[in-house]
Design goal:
By secondary structure, the protein is of the alpha+beta class. The protein has 7 helices and 8 strands, in the order H-H-H-E-E-E-E-H-E-E-E-E-H-H-H.
Amino acid sequence: MRVKALVVLYCLFFVSSTLAAELTPQERLVAKAETALQSFLTAPDAEWLTDRLQDALAVMIIPRMIKAGFVFGASGGDAVMIAKHAKTQAWSNPAFYKVGAFGVGLQAGIQKSTVLLLVRSEAGLRSLLRSSGKVGAGGSIAVGPIGGGATTQLATDMVSYTRAKGLFAGVSLDGATIGVDTEANEAYYRKGVTARDILINQSAKRPNSDKLARALSKALK
């Protein structure tokens, strides 16, 4: 009986490992983004965030933002973004982005963070539809408070919200370079697809590509 149970467990492990191995890099990133979103929405201090998600025009999720440095600091990560349709209010399928930054200052250590970027204005959304650009170059960005009880009203185009452990208090994306990952978008959807097709026109689709949108819609009901 014990041997049979071990065989079953082995088979389950083998199947799950095989399925995970068959996922494309883009599918794995979307799955990580779903997990990251849930970690934000179910956190004890999530009330401030969920209140502002109601009015967000788009949400960018960076499941793993790495920041490291001593005096000179570098950071970066892969991201996905979904946007709200102007008329139907339906959330789009995910578009893929690359995030990178480089700064100078009194920094030390290494930190792995999970970051949510809430896009709150048309200007902020337009800036992220460009192939590449710096966050805050055409508008303003603020760092969302970490912890409960935050009631500050932020008149900004974007707000970054971070959950992290490490030597940095948080991750600011002000000045970070964010670029559309055209290669990833085309691999996930089709050749020639653009960020505008995915986020604004919402014409880029594939099976099960709406899982992240459905998760966010369910959380905001």
